[in-house]
Automatic annotation (TrEMBL):
It comes from Emticicia soli. This is NAD-dependent epimerase/dehydratase family protein. InterPro entries: Epimerase_deHydtase, Lipid_A_modif_metabolic_enz, NAD(P)-bd_dom_sf. Residues 4-218 form the NAD-dependent epimerase/dehydratase domain. Coiled coil: none annotated. It comes from the Bacteria. Pfam families: Epimerase.
Length: 306
């Protein structure tokens, strides 16, 4: 059995679609799970509860951790390390492999200008420090406790996403409502985005490739990065809208953060948007002979599905 923890989020859903190419024995775990494939097994669980984590993982061969907690530092501090400990312990007890779907917050400052699997832990944010802690927990369990695990990292997402995508929220949704597109901090620097269907397919492929374990993998992402302005122009052209946009510089985001909690959280991550941000997935592309979806094609597919 292959089990997805956090199954009904954007990545969990894309992963479930892709896993059907490998198995029909898929367990979807969340508070209110819904089938993606006809043969899926649903398991309702509160993953902040240790006993329910162990029950959800029981009998699993591979466990995919794709949980997305609310984007608040205090929630991350309280819930992420505890969940990771419980998941690792349950995987070891059940002799299950672990695939952790991660971001790149543990890499900070100018190291985001070229992000590879070998980029050093260099957090410049509180959220980044938490991601370092989670990565170290997995790496230590691999080394000391015999856990078989993969850390699969993605850049920021774009795709048919309900929420939590800066690109979709600031550009696509605003243009769809005949408003100006928006961007944070600096629209003249390039920024990589990972296409969610690619992320789902690649995570399923990694989980079902025995030799991929006990490694870090950057998930496939188009290397032809675009600047914020180029992203806006791309969406505007495809949607037949104006490419004029509103920029939120750092001081404005910081000020607005006094009143809008989400912007307060975003301000801490400004290093990802005020300089070049390039996510290099060449290791994955070469090993699996996988071509990431070009940005232009991804945007066309998003608009066709909205």
């Amino acid at each position: 059995m292959q089990t997805i923890l956090g199954a009904n989020g954007t990545i969990g859903t894309e992963l479930a679609k892709a896993l059907k190419n490998y198995t029909s024995d898929i367990r979807l775990v969340s508070r209110n799970p819904k089938k993606v494939n006809d043969t899926d097994t649903l398991f309702a669980a509160d993953l902040t509860n240790k006993d329910e984590v162990f029950k959800a993982i029981s009998g699993s061969e591979i466990v995919y951790l794709t949980v997305g907690f609310e984007y608040k530092l205090d929630i991350w501090k309280k819930q992420w390390p505890t969940l990771m400990k419980n998941v690792i312990d349950a995987c070891i007890e059940n002799k299950a492999k672990l695939v952790f779907f991660d971001n790149v917050y543990m890499i900070g400052g100018d190291n985001v200008k070229h992000i590879t699997e070998k980029s050093p832990f260099s957090p410049t944010s509180k959220k980044g420090e938490i991601r370092v802690e989670l990565n170290k927990m997995i790496l230590e369990a691999i080394k000391e406790r015999g856990l078989q695990a993969i850390i699969a990292r993605a850049a920021d997402f774009y795709g048919v996403i309900k929420n939590n995508s800066v690109l979709i929220e600031l550009v696509h949704k605003n243009l769809a409502e005949n408003k100006k597109a928006q961007w944070f901090f600096n629209a003249k620097v390039k920024h990589s985005f990972t296409y969610t269907p690619d992320a789902g397919k690649a995570t399923a492929l990694l989980g079902n490739t025995p030799e991929a374990y006990n490694q870090i993998w950057n998930l496939p992402t188009d290397r032809n990065s675009l600047t914020g302005e180029e992203w806006i122009r791309l969406f505007a052209k495809e949607m037949g809208k104006s490419d004029k946009y509103q920029l939120f510089p750092a001081f404005m985001v910081k000020l607005a953060g006094l009143f809008v909690p989400f912007l307060r959280e975003i301000y801490e991550m400004r290093y990802q948007y005020d300089r070049e941000y390039f996510f290099d997935s060449s290791k994955f592309e070469k090993y699996f002979n996988f071509k990431p979806t070009p940005y232009q094609q991804g945007v066309k597919e998003i608009l066709a599905n909205n």
